[in-house]
Amino acid sequence: MSSERHLTSFVAILACAALASCAQVEDPCKTKSRVVADDKYCDKYWECDNGQSVQYDCPNGLVFAGKHRGVTEGCDYPWRSNYCEYPKVQINPPIGTEHCDWLYGIFGHETSCTRYWTCWNGTATEQLCIGGLLYNENAHSCDWPENVDGCQKHPLCNEDPNGNVPLGKSCNRYWQCQGGYPRLQRCPAMLVFDRRSLRCVVPPTEECDVPTTTAPPPEEEENRPRVQHQSKRPSQGFSEQSRPPPRN
Ligand SMILES: *[C@@H]1O[C@H](CO)[C@@H](O)[C@H](O)[C@H]1NC(C)=O
């Protein structure tokens, strides 16, 4: 029997014996999967152990999804599906740790719209939204700024809501602000982003060399970047550098 699961079988078996009130929960020992959802609490389930029906709790913050489903132990994030529809309720109280409202879950950042936390057994890992996206608390994922309440505009575009903004030291990528929303853009092949005029221009500029065109065999063309820079800088692609600065 797994030690991480909170065993409540003793109480449950007593309750069943005394009240004969377990009729609504299907006997897991009579099912093929040997696991059934609790009929009242979406964060509890019943499993057949040595011929006995035993009640278990999902890991804190998760609800029962079905055997071999969900993110761990047959349990899933409550918002992933209609696991907790009325009249079912989540009965276990949240156990919080730093950055985590529950031991398991995905939570908003305290100070930034472009960051969020994933929590696994109470350990928080900071995550970043890239490409001008912001964390959407309702969707529990990165989303277009216009869908994110309270974080509609990005400070990156404060100076000019429809202007271009350099992206780190990149020679071909930049942010294009559209009504205050940043969009990641790339200069057309052979051009470089000029941080003075804030436009794509014919190189060289002060910071950017003339890109060298590689002439790949036609069949490889699709999979290769069309322009390679002479500079020894690593490609800036969708790296840490490509996110807008945190909103503080
Ligand atoms: C979760 O963390 C607790 C304490 O930090 C530890 O005792 C337990 O084994 C962990 N459980 C899992 C499933 O990793």
Automatic annotation (TrEMBL):
Keyword Signal: yes
SUPFAM superfamilies per UniProt: Invertebrate chitin-binding proteins
InterPro entries for the chain: Chitin-bd_dom, Chitin-bd_dom_sf, Chitin_bind-dev_reg
Superkingdom of source: Eukaryota
Signal sequence coordinates: 1-22
UniProt KW keywords: Chitin-binding, Disulfide bond, Glycoprotein, Repeat, Signal
Entry protein name: Chitin-binding type-2 domain-containing protein
Organism: Loxostege sticticalis
